[in-house]
Amino acid sequence: MKTAIVWFKTDLRLYDNETLIKAIAQSEEILPIYCFDDSHFETTQYGFKKTGSYRAQFLLESLKNLDANLRKLGSGLLIVKGKPEVEIPKIVAEYKVHKVFAEREVAFEEKRTEKLVQTELFKLRCELETFSTSTLYHAEDLPFAKKDIPDIFTVFRKKIEQETSVRSVFSSPLTIASPIIPKLNLPTLKKLGLELSKIDSRAAINFKGGETQAKKRLNHYFFETKSLSSYKETRNGMVGEDYSSKFSAWLALGCISPRAIYFEIKRYENQNGANDSTYWLVFELLWRDFFRFMFKKHQTKFFLYSGIQNEKVNSKSLNEKLVSQWINGATDSDFINANMIELKLTGFMSNRGRQNVASYFCNELNMDWRMGASYFESQLIDYDVCSNWGNWAYLAGVGNDPRKHRYFNIEKQAKDYDKDSAFRDLWLQ
């Protein structure tokens, strides 16, 4: 019997999952697996846990939901823990798997792991086939070669919008034939080297992982509240659940795809009319694509001190006391402090907040921007490798910003975006 593995990574969904659909079409039995990669739970060179407890909790919830949805179709999720290049070949040998299907990676560490797995599978005469499933526009449909992707977002966006269209989505499978899959066996946070962090009751939104919750959030933001129609006006807000879509955490783990969101925007526009706000959410999804394609083009450069530029503008200093004050919301800026306390106690921060605290870290404190990016990696529920490191490099003046060195006047920003101090009063009580 032809058995295939579907190796789930940051594509934890059934709807619009090309990897899963292609595996079903080419095999008689499907074995869905998820590997807790030991390297994702190590401490980075900057001293932070690569995956903190907020994100790990969201991941565990997402996997639980994926397993439940797979079981409704006659399948389930097999969990392994260790190094993917060791654990996946073991399963291949045990189940006599002919092919492994997986999401295609773009960032350096993830690509390296993919290559290690492929090398080990080759020894077992098992093929690894990957699919591009995480962007709005398909990599193969770009109107330029990888090396020629414009480094300036506006140039990229205009050409894409003029010359490319979004591919249609893949329906969820109706049934999945699988070998008997044991009951879901997720590691505890403790097993992952983490402690449970309770999310503060002041959190803007209570994120719960999984495709089911992602669809619920989309329906709430679009059709129940019609908040999408005013997204452009409210997206720089800082207090409350509906000033922005808050899709980022589900997008980061692939509990929902950008294309699924795009076609729901189109459905919403048909029912409620299109305006600048409905377009603006597509615009933000394009930013997400842009950073993924930048990582394809520049690879390891986004993790270097000088980024994708040749010269470095901010200092490479490290002052542990200043870093600690920044992390714990004890700087001389109440606006920065409120944002950093929100991040520390909830695993989330508004887009406006992120830009300000990153600018402050790079420009006022004059620190190595990669340390700030690494703290975000550990702390954010919605951490996405390309968006996080791409945005930090941008704000540090070593990324894709055509203005070279973007500097935020923090006091002016506080006046503009927290006029009545509602945000600061909430977090600095």
From TrEMBL:
Pfam family, one: FAD_binding_7
Keyword terms of this UniProt record: Chromophore, FAD, Flavoprotein
GO terms of biological process kind: photoreactive repair
Ligase as UniProt keyword: no
Cofactor binding: number and manner: Binds 1 5,10-methenyltetrahydrofolate (MTHF) per subunit.
Domain Photolyase/cryptochrome alpha/beta: 2-136
PANTHER family named in the record: CRYPTOCHROME (PTHR11455), CRYPTOCHROME DASH (PTHR11455:SF22)
Protein name: Cryptochrome DASH
Organism: Flavobacterium frigoris (strain PS1)
